Amino acid sequence: MSLKKYCILLLSCYFFQTIGSIDQHKAISYIEINNNGMIISQPGNYYLTGNVSFYPVNNPDATPIITIASSNVTLDCNRVTLTQSSDNTTLDLHGIVIQEGLDHIKIHNGTIDTISGVGIIIHQGCSEITIENMKLSNCVQGGILADGTANNPIIGSKFHTISCEHNHGDPANYGDETNRYSPCGGQFIYLEEFKIDNSQFIANQTSTNEQNAYGCLLQNCSQGIIRTSSFSCNKSLFDAYGLLMTESNYIDIQDCTFDNNKSIENNCYGCGIIASSHNTIQDCMLSGNHGYINTYGLLIQGTLIDDEYQGSDNNRILRTQSIGNYATTYNCFGFSSQGNKSNNFIASIAHNNQSGISSSSLAAGFYVGKLTLESIDYQESFLTIKECHAKTNYAQNGTGAGLYANIIHKAHIEENWLINNTGTNYSYGLIDLSESCNSLIMSNYAFGQSSNYHVTYADQNTLFPLITGTVGDFSIMANGVPFINYEWRNDCQCDDED
Fold first, then answer.
1. Mean pLDDT of 133-150
2. What pLDDT score does 490 carry?
3. How far apart are CA 186 and CA 215, in angstroms?
4. Nearest-angstrom CA–CA distance, 334 and 346
5. Most buried residue, 187, 233, 327, 420, by most Cβ within 10 Å?
6. 210 in a domain, yes or no?
7. pLDDT digits (tens, 9 = 90+) for 304-343
């Protein structure tokens, strides 16, 4: 082949490759979108050419702004912003909607801000959806909604570097003075095999709306991974959650923060795990959460579902810190597990959690025990708390404790440090209100409380701890004396150890 023909061949290949590349990346202009909204009905790669202030003259009530109606679509928002025009008062205007049953969709590199609906909606039955580098803010009905069902879950989705913030739940600016929505960063329903990483669910808040606020809400989700994300500064008049998981199982959460969430008039939870099992939280921080009534750094609890009790069982809390949470009026707990089976707290820290002004308030690093629902008690059983620290938890007008056990069954409490937990009424290192002890409580160290170890066992002969110091009254063991305790059973005896 001559040099001339070879050069022509190379140029031809380049030309057709360039034409193909241009054809694969379809531009979507502001004018196209603002006519009547945009429907992407063919596979391909699309990109936006400029900011959109949505007010379609041809159809003022059009919603959503962009609909994806085909699989195998990539939409590059190209660093532009989709917003609802200030002249457009359409209610329930959503930003981008992915229709049900689609797969291999990617939306990335943009902002959806100030709309009356949800920023991004993923409908049931979708799979392999990726949302990346997106900011979803000031959306009345939430930043992102993944709306799966039991029969048609959303499978294999990834949410990378998304920011869901300042979604407030109040449509008054769009002429609706009646309805109110929960301020919510992200709501994920029937999501399976998903990953959320490097993301923020922050400052979703209202000071006038009597709905719960959620940084992130997981409902009926399973087999998920959450990494290096923040669930912080979410606020409401009613209950406020950094993250709430209900009926969600096998979720692995690592290196996340749950801090400075606030309830103005009710309860606040850095993280709530309700009727959810086999989840892991490790190397996380829960701090500065503030409830008017009660505050929980982390709450693990069962509930009634269709009149049947469902506990939150077999959850693991590893190397996680709950620090500086506080309540205005009543109780504050760094970690709490109530009415569950086989939960494990390992090498975790609860420091400086403070209860409120009520004389009946309780501050505890760890609060564990029974849960009473509709006059029925559900036991906390087979609990493990090991190698944990509870220090300087403080009740400003009530009872302070490092570990407060409100009736536990066959628990394993070992090698924990319970130091300088105080209250104006009572202060305990470890208090166990069980009527009889069938738990293994050993090798714990307590110091600096008025009663380092307090039990109320009615049956003192079957099992009780032995501690360094004189054992006088079994209901108050070695009051005020630092101790290292071991177990005494009726079939074996362990010597005291200095």
1. 97
2. 35
3. 7
4. 14
5. 327
6. yes
7. 999 999 999 999 999 999 999 999 999 999 999 999 999 9
> How buried is residue 456: exposed, middle or buried, by Cβ count under 10 Å (0-12/13-18/19+)?
middle
Between 215 and 462, the higher pLDDT residue: 215
**pTM metric for this prediction:** 0.89
**Is 459 contained in some domain?**
no
Structurally, the chain folds into a number of domains equal to 1
Measure Cα distances from 384 to 314, 342, 442 in Å. Answer: 10, 7, 12
Check pLDDT > 50 for residue 206. Answer: yes
In a domain, 309, yes or no: no
Q: How far apart are the C-alpha atoms of 304 and 461, rounded to whole Å?
A: 37
* Domain assignment present for 261: no
Domain harbouring 139, CATH code: 2.160.20.10
Provide the residue range defining the domain that includes 88. Answer: 38-238
* Backbone angle region of 379, left / alpha / beta, with phi > 0 → left and psi within -120 to 50 → alpha: beta
3-state secondary structure 93-152: CCCEEECCCCEEEEEEEEEEEEECCCCEEEECCCEEEEEEEEEEEEECCCCEEEECCCCC
Nearest to 162 by CA among 181, 180, 146: 146
When the pLDDT of each residue in the chain is averaged and rounded to a whole number, the result is 88
* Cβ neighbours, 10 Å, residue 19: 10
Strands 417-419 and 422-423: unpaired
